[in-house]
Design brief:
Layout (H helix, E strand, L loop, with lengths): L1 H24 L15 E4 L2 E4 L4 E7 L2 E6 L5 H10 L7 E2 L4 E4 L5 H38 L5 H34 L2
Antiparallel strand pairs: 1-2, 3-4, 4-6, 5-6
């Protein structure tokens, strides 16, 4: 039972780290990245679809994203979604390809983005701590119901704390890496 709880908790931690990485990939840095736009949802054929399923997204230069829709009729819809998104880039198209020129970030904007990164990392840490509390409560409940011994409870709690510490360290590192990327000119 203790192993089931720790395995489930470990799965939650991995998902939290992956979710943080995915979210931070959408934060614009001074460099072009397909992660900025591939998650955008475009209304296509009556159904919302992610942009990466409707077009080829490439980064031919450090400050340019090129989007080539599979269906040229989708260009206007894709352009509209990009304009309405929070990435703050105006698309240009030639009828076949959409180009997104990434402007350089000002120092103030970089500092704002670092605050956003730190806030997001802190949100995920809070989520991890809540998961830890739930796992600990589950172990205590097992011990109260006499399903596990007091020693097993202690070992389980120690294991959960070790996993939490390791995950928090990993989240901090992910945040620091993204901050360095944002601050790089």
């Amino acid at each position: 039972m203790v192993n089931d709880v720790t395995r489930e908790y470990e799965t939650h931690l991995k998902k939290a780290a992956e979710a943080l990485k995915h979210h931070l990939a959408t934060i614009r840095t001074g460099r072009a990245s397909s992660g900025l736009v591939e998650h955008l949802s475009v209304e296509a054929y009556g159904t919302p679809m992610p942009l990466n399923q409707l077009a080829t997204i490439s980064v031919p230069e450090a400050r340019l994203i090129v989007i080539q829709p599979y269906d040229n009729g989708m260009i206007k819809a894709i352009e509209k979604v990009i304009q309405n998104s929070d990435i703050g880039i105006n698309p240009s198209n030639d009828g076949r390809i959409i180009r997104l020129a990434i402007p350089t970030l000002t120092e103030d904007r970089r500092r704002e983005l670092v605050k956003v990164v730190r806030h997001r990392v802190e949100e995920v840490k809070i989520s991890v701590r809540n998961q830890r509390r739930d796992a600990m409560d589950q172990l205590k409940e097992f011990e109260q119901e006499k399903l596990i011994s007091e020693d097993e409870l202690k070992r389980g709690q120690e294991r959960i704390q070790q996993l939490t510490d390791r995950c928090i360290g990993e989240l901090d590192q992910i945040g620091k890496d993204k901050e360095a990327e944002v601050m790089a000119v």
